[in-house]
Design goal:
Blueprint (H helix, E strand, L loop, with lengths): L1 E6 L2 H13 L5 E3 L1 H6 L8 E5 L4 H10 L9
Antiparallel strand pairs: 1-3, 2-3
Length: 73
């Protein structure tokens, strides 16, 4: 699995998940519960992961949608 982005922005996470899932790209969200326990103070950010073979398509899709700035390099 490859990390696409790391953020506490719930709107961005929802948008990205929707884009990827619409293209049948499986998305796994890590650290969601730790982030909630943290109180959303940005100490623990949520991570969106995709399979290695979907990384290239996922990155291109997010760039095309205008959220390429949020991608983890």
């Amino acid at each position: 699995m490859v990390e696409l982005l790391r953020t506490n922005d719930a709107v961005l996470i929802s948008f990205v998940r929707g884009l990827l899932e619409a293209e049948s790209i499986v998305v796994v969200e890590l650290d969601q519960h730790a982030s909630i326990m943290d109180g959303s103070m940005a100490m623990v950010q949520r991570r969106l992961m995709v399979d290695d073979e979907d990384e290239r398509a996922a990155r291109q899709l997010l760039k095309d949608a205008g959220v390429g700035h949020a991608l983890k390099t």
